[in-house]
Amino acid sequence: MTPEVQQRINDLVQNNKIMVFMKGTKLMPQCGFSNNVVQILNVLGVPFETYDVLSDPDIRQGIKEYSNWPTIPQVYINGEFVGGSDIMIELYQKGELQQMVEVALAS
Q1: Is residue 21 within a helix (H) or strand (E), and if so which, with residue range?
Q2: pLDDT tens, 12-45?
Q3: Which residues, at least 6 apart from 88, have a Cβ–Cβ distance to it below 8 Å?
Q4: Alpha-carbon distance 105 to 107, whole Å?
Q5: What is the pLDDT of residues 58-102, one digit of tens each?
Q6: Alpha carbon 39 to its chain's center
Q7: Cβ contacts of residue 39 below 8 Å, gap of 6+?
Q8: What is the Cα–Cα distance from 36 to 4, expressed in whole angstroms?
């Protein structure tokens, strides 16, 4: 990953309370896993930003190196990597995701 790509990713992660790197957009997810994440965040009713990795091969590969996580989508809350679709579903079902989001938005 180039320093420029790393800086772009870092800026997106640091400048957005909830950042989702996904296939497609929050209005048009392009895969089921990305759609799961969007639906969970929509149910929680929280503001979040997305980045379509399909439109940017450098970010698509770079985000995997940035997080050391091989799959998309990737969710960052308050600058911290949370996980992908399965982890988001698990956190939501346990009631932990709502708390994480509230803390992030309050800070």
Answers
A1: strand 18-22
A2: 999 999 999 999 999 999 999 999 999 999 999 9
A3: 36, 37, 40, 75, 82, 97
A4: 6
A5: 999 999 999 999 999 999 999 999 999 999 999 999 999 999 999
A6: 13
A7: none
A8: 30
49-52/18-22 β-pairing: parallel
Closest CA to 49 of 81, 27, 82, 71: 27
pTM above 0.85, yes or no: yes
**Could you tell me if 74 and 31 are in contact, meaning their C-beta atoms sit under 8 angstroms apart?**
no
Residue pair 75/53 in contact by the 8 Å Cβ criterion: no
Paired strand residues for 74 = 21
**Domain range summary for the chain, segments of one domain joined by +:** 3-101
Domain at 3-101: CATH code: 3.40.30.10
